[in-house]
Design brief:
Blueprint: H1 14-29, E1 56-64, E2 77-82, H2 95-98, E3 104-106, H3 108-120, E4 126-129, H4 135-147, E5 154-158, H5 164-169, E6 176-179, H6 186-193, H7 198-213, E7 217-218, E8 224-233, H8 242-252, E9 258-262, H9 283-295, E10 300-304, H10 308-311, E11 316-317
Parallel strand pairs: 2-4, 4-5, 5-6, 6-8, 8-9, 9-10
Antiparallel strand pairs: 1-2, 1-3, 7-8, 10-11
Length: 327
């Protein structure tokens, strides 16, 4: 079902989206689409750090029921998993797509048709996963889809490692930001994700995302139509320093901001090579953070069942009622 609240936020035309795509192509010519700024001429067919060239390379297009509840209502989130990534997390659960190159080449027109197919399947949104390194052609696809009747909100599902320049290109285009805040230590970010400047970059990006779209807003059916949900993945051995990230959020964003405290970590990909990562999160580690997040006064927090780390299907609950910000 298409949200009746989509159109008031859809203030940018397909022609304007194409103009943003042109600006994104300029960034890709000496690539500055992610904070690495590797300078690769992606537009000429060269591959950057992300292992992708100029076009669209897509790992999967499918309804996805594992996102947070406001994103998974009706036919699920309309997930588009884009091949490649701006980070190299040793524990990535989608490593076949993000680091292994799994996927197929798409034209913008073909991806637009897939977006419309997801809408016809009653997905609640278009959920683009790890999108920034493929932004130019992705925006071209979105313009085609909007011209042909796409009305679903756009969810920007990101690791949080984003530049302010790219976020400016997305103003008026993205409805819901779904960023990770993965670390509170650059040393840990460097060791486990090859992102030695992650903390400052991700924090600044999240502040800008919140400035652009604000707190989460849902429609009368509970579907997310605008706002930010910040994901905090709990890693074993305190590696993510989630409590420190919560302190930063508390000091810089309203207590009504929506958080997602995730217990679903499993030692996948290359995590077995790191003894401190080679186990699931245990219940005491997770429950102590659940208690902390409520004690700190956060009002809107998604909590996961511990079974999420074993079965691989996130199961979100909340011990408190949600108070959605409708302003």
């Amino acid at each position: 079902m298409v949200s009746p609240f989509r159109n008031p936020f859809d203030v940018i035309s397909p022609a304007a989206i194409r103009e943003r795509a042109d600006e994104a192509w300029k960034l890709a010519s000496t690539c500055r689409l992610c904070p690495r700024g590797c300078g690769t001429d992606r537009r000429s067919g060269y591959f950057g750090y992300c292992s992708t060239g100029p076009g669209l390379h897509v790992g999967s297009v499918t309804p996805h029921f594992g996102e947070e509840p406001p994103l998974s209502i009706d036919g699920g989130a309309g997930a588009i998993f884009l091949t490649g990534c701006s980070m190299s997390c040793v524990y990535c659960q989608n490593h076949q797509i993000s680091q292994g190159g799994l996927g197929e080449n798409y034209t913008p027109v073909l991806l637009a048709r897939e977006m419309l197919r997801l809408q016809s399947m009653e997905c609640s949104n278009i959920d683009v996963v790890s999108p920034s390194h493929q932004l130019p052609a992705l925006l071209e696809a979105l313009a085609f889809a909007r011209e042909n009747g796409l009305e679903l909100p756009l969810v920007y599902n990101t690791n949080g490692y984003e530049t302010l320049e790219v976020l400016d290109l997305l103003e008026g285009i993205v409805d819901v930001y779904l960023p990770d805040l993965r670390y509170a230590s650059n040393e840990k970010a460097s060791i486990y994700s090859d992102a030695p400047d992650y903390v400052e970059v991700a924090r600044n990006a999240i502040l800008e995302m919140h400035r652009k779209v604000g707190n989460l807003v849902v429609d009368l059916q509970g579907r997310a139509v605008r706002g930010v949900i910040i994901r905090l993945l709990v890693l074993p051995s305190g590696i993510a320093a989630v409590e420190e990230s919560l302190q930063w959020i508390k000091g810089n964003l309203p207590s009504t901001v929506t958080l997602s405290l995730m217990s679903q970590y499993s030692p996948l990909h290359r995590a077995q090579k790191f003894p401190e990562l080679n186990r699931p999160v245990n219940e005491s580690e997770y429950e102590s953070l659940v208690e902390k997040v409520w004690d700190m006064g956060f009002e809107n927090v998604f909590i996961q069942e511990m079974s999420s780390s074993r079965c691989g299907i996130p199961d979100f609950t909340s011990p408190k009622p949600f108070v959605w910000d409708q302003d």
